[in-house]
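request received
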Amino acid sequence: MSVQPHVPEVENESIEDRLYTVTYEDPGDSHLDVAIPGICAEKCVTYDCVSVCPADVWRKGEDGVPNIAYENCLECGSCRWACQHGNVEWEYPETGAGVTYKNG
Amino acid sequence: MNDATIDRTDRETATPEYDDAFDAIVVGAGLAGSAAAVTMADRGLDVLLIERGRFPGAKNVFGGVLYTPTLRELVDIDAAPLERYIGERRFGMLTDDDETAVSISPGEWHDPPHNDSYTVLRGEFDEWFAEQAVEAGATLVTRTTVTGLLREGDRIVGVETDRPDGAIRAPYVVLAEGGNSLVSEGADLKDRERRENIAVGVKEVLEFPDSDEAIEQRFRLSGEAGAAYHYFGEGAVGDAFGGGFVYTNEDTVSVGLAYRLSDAATSQPDPEATLNAFKTHPAVSPLLRGARTVEYTAKTIPEGGPDSIPELVHDGAVIVGDAAGLVLNNGIHLEGTNMAVESGYHAGEAVADAAGTGRTDAAALEAYREDLEDSFVVENLERYEWLIERVQNDRELLFEDLPEAVADAGHEYFKMDRAPKERHAAAAKEQLLEAVGGYTGAAKLAFRYRNLI
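response:
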């Protein structure tokens, strides 16, 4: 028998490369926001929006309020349910903007 | 992300003349919405199908297997863009480095209609399905987002859209907006679901640029046959409640996983990191080596079961598909597409019947709720409610301890050394019994899951 690695190499692309695989049209404004920044800064200690996001949209901000890279958004909606303070404002990007999947 | 390049369906935008021009408006051209649109158009109603994406399917994601028993009654699926039929199902229990699997491949699945189970890509399929609604007489508008509902008193009388002068009035509205139901919630037709009842799913479609034969060879396929591999346990989704999958498309595979949002928020790493770990598991990576990512997608799945179904019927409106929480995930069965189509069909029939009487009140649409409750959709959700609850309570045993014990027992049972087999068999049995808490524990476990058989 020839020597084979037990686990063959599987390449996991970076989140940037993964997001590059989907078509995106910038709606101009963010379709995501926090309702009351003070809640993030003062009440939230878990940052569940950051923990659940599959697309690196939600990032911990220095002032305790998350930075929102809305142009990464895959529109799954996870952050909306994850936030225990109900502090995520979520709208559908309008007129066909946002993510477009070819395969889905 | 790259710039906008696709515009397969550059249709006319919504204009004010749509106001009062239709019998029914369908919000969302996914499976439930197009099923409702086809059904109502076939019954002679003037239907407006509104899709927020650039084309139907542009915003839609699912695991990968479409179930077609109701769909085939509505449209000619022989002409549909299907990828492969499911000829094999495999259920693999993964620890961090073991796999114990069961595979079934009944001969019947290779004969039409292939147990009504096919892999599809939603970007293609949903566009095709919406085209069937258009051929039946419905009007489709894309790139148009419904932002709210129009009301007269309690009655819903149309939709508000993001188009200039975007209010469109119609006697009936079918809400098929998906699980992230901003319109239904905004109009107080539905409560916001708890995060314990929502799963987050991520998926990659992968291609094999260096090999034309990779899919056929690795999954032992020929012709149009395909495979659905399901995975559970620590190696799939860590300590979360959920599972992973690999499905074969014609020239690509869909690899992904889903688990509860509450787990993603707490103990389990984020979905992308969990996907990376699953793809590199020793039992999974040989299937995927050399693959390149064609597309990365994410979605949420309503898994609240029968208790999470909102009030389905309102004055002037009905709720269908994922928006109505119609997804079954009991571990063995992962179904949503068939329930979406079934609900869209019953809703469409109920609206058409009501339109015949000229009534728009909830009582006139009640047949939708009744027919759905009498159908497999609600019956299955109710039948497996107890199972999902128990599996959640027993998750550590079922997804961590037991898979570990089964793998260890298997290793022990088949061990090659100079000890007699009887000794290995006894040791293997001991390991299994220990995991479930002895004979008493085994009996209790069997009792808890007796309704499975």
